[in-house]
C-alpha cells in the first residue's frame, strides 16, 4: 500500500509540474489571447465587436517581444511590468461584418473623415465605462485609438481604468459602450468574472542571464 501511495503522489507531482510548464513568450501571448474568459465577442447582422482584458504581464511582454522576440530576460520583464501594473486594460474592437472600413462607412468628404478621426482619438472615452457589480460606474483614466490609416477595416482602442475598481468584494465587471458614432443603435455590454481577471497566468520561460 505504501508503494502504491508513493506512486500516486509521484503521479500527482508530475501532473502538477506539467501544468506549471513555462511558456515561451510567444506561447504565453497566444495562451492569454485565446482564453475565452478574458476575450469576449458579439455579432449582429452588421457589426463584429470584441472586448479583451489585457493583463499587465501580457502588455509588458508584448512590448518587449517587439524588439527581443522570445529572448527576454526576467529582469527586463520586471522593469517593463512596472509600467503597466497599476491599472486595468481592456482592448475594444468594432468592425463591420462586410469587412469594409468602419471609420469611413458614413463619410463622404475629407473634412468629415478628419472629424471622425478626431472623435475617435479624443472624445470616444466618454462613451465607455466599467460597471462593478451593476452598482458603481468607473470611467477610463485614458484611452488610445489605434489609427491604422486605412490599412485595417476595424477600429481598435485600448482603455485604461483605475486598478482599485477591482476590490476583493467585486464579483463582476461589465464593460459598457454607449455608441454614438458607429450606428450600432444599442448599448454594448461585456461581462467579466472578477476572479478571471485576477487569476494566475502561466509562467513565462525567460532567457537565462
Overall description:
The chain is α+β, with helices and mostly antiparallel strands and 209 residues long. Helix content is 33%, strand content 27%. It contains 6 helices and 9 strands; from the N terminus they run H-H-E-E-H-H-E-H-E-E-E-E-E-E-H. A 5-stranded antiparallel beta sheet has the order 1-2-3-7-6. A 4-stranded antiparallel beta sheet has the order 5-4-8-9. It is globular, with a radius of gyration of 21 Å. The protein starts with a helix and ends in a 12-residue tail after the last helix.
Helix content: 25-40%
Share in β-strands: 25-35%
The strand order across the widest sheet is: 1-2-3-7-6
Quaternary organisation of the protein chains: single chain
The rough form would be described as globular
Distance between the termini: 45 Å
H-E order: HHEEHHEHEEEEEEH
How many beta-strand segments? 9
Number of helices: 6
| C-alpha Rg (nearest Å) | 21 Å
Output mean pLDDT: 90
Structural class: alpha+beta
- Biggest sheet overview: 5 strands, antiparallel
Describe the structure using short key phrases:
209 residues, globular, 5-stranded antiparallel β-sheet, 27% strand, alpha+beta, 6 helices, 9 strands
Blueprint (SSEs and pairs):
Blueprint: H1 2-19, H2 25-33, E1 39-43, E2 47-53, H3 56-68, H4 74-84, E3 87-96, H5 110-123, E4 128-132, E5 136-139, E6 142-145, E7 155-162, E8 172-178, E9 187-193, H6 194-197
Antiparallel strand pairs: 1-2, 2-3, 3-7, 4-5, 4-8, 6-7, 8-9
